[in-house]
Amino acid sequence: MTPEKLAIIGTALYGERWQTPLANDLQVADRTMRRWLAGESPIPESIAAELLALFERRKRTLNALTDYSINALNHTIMNVRTNSLFAYDGAGRLTLRDPGFAKPDEMPAIADGAQEALRLELQRDPRTKAYWVDRTSGRMTATPAPHTESSPWVEEQEYHGYNLQAVQHPPVWQVNIYITRPNMIPPNPFDMPASSPSKEAALADARRRVDRLLGTRKLHGIEEKISLGGRITTILDELRRGSSGVYTFRLGEKTIKGSRDLRYFVNVVRGNSSEQFDISKEDFERLRGMNVPVGLHG
User: Fold this and answer.
1) C-alpha distances out from residue 289 to 24, 67, 181, 188, 293, Å
2) CA 71, 90, 126, 1 torsion: positive or negative?
3) What residues contact 50, with CB distance under 8 A and at least 6 apart?
4) Whole-angstrom Cα distance, residue 97 to residue 84?
5) 216 falls in which pLDDT band (50, 70, 90)?
6) pTM as predicted
7) How many CB atoms sit inside 10 A of residue 68's CB?
8) CB 261 within 8 A of CB 275
9) Quick check: 139 pLDDT over 60?
């Protein structure tokens, strides 16, 4: 236990005026507390266990700093109040994935609280450390103790500065998108993870989502060959063919996050499935002139 860590925990437990309340709860003199903080006396090893017990007792009333949600399947821990997201490995090391709404001066205490929350959870249930997929049964199973690094069912990729984390949840793969720097455009927190039976397809979907975030998604010409329902055709051909009984076309425009520019697209619905194709403003106006309805805004 270092003086710096003691100060972080004390502030998290009691606020700015924490030294006297913490000294009282630890049953030590104020002078002893000051000597620990100044580095004049070593902090006894037993203090760490006592502080953990204090954390447990104060947990219900300190949701702002100690209310965490741990997801053992994708190795993440989130601070509920700020949406600060951390990833952890089998050795219990934390990596900040997304600061969420936390202020910079809050992050040291939040990170320390996440570390303690993870530690407590590992003590309660060692299976939180890591899981692997039993290929024969398709079930998630706790890894053997020696397994401390990334699980074989997790794969990470970097794409345009974003971290794509593919996790297998039989029978599908899901890909979560994380920012790696505070000034990046964050993905919509209400979007479901990219999901597909194929890892490659799920990653491709996640890359398309990043492209949309950055406003760099490929523009499709309405006379360009595309695949619809397994048939090679074009948007313009289908409209001229009057295939409204098979497809429903609707135009949309959305503001690109972090920009004043608009994104134009055509949404093609076939039965219970739909697909969007980004188009140029000129093609958008051209289709609108052909009486294709505009119904998607954002």
Assistant:
1) 76, 54, 43, 32, 10
2) negative
3) 26
4) 8
5) low
6) 0.35
7) 23
8) no
9) no
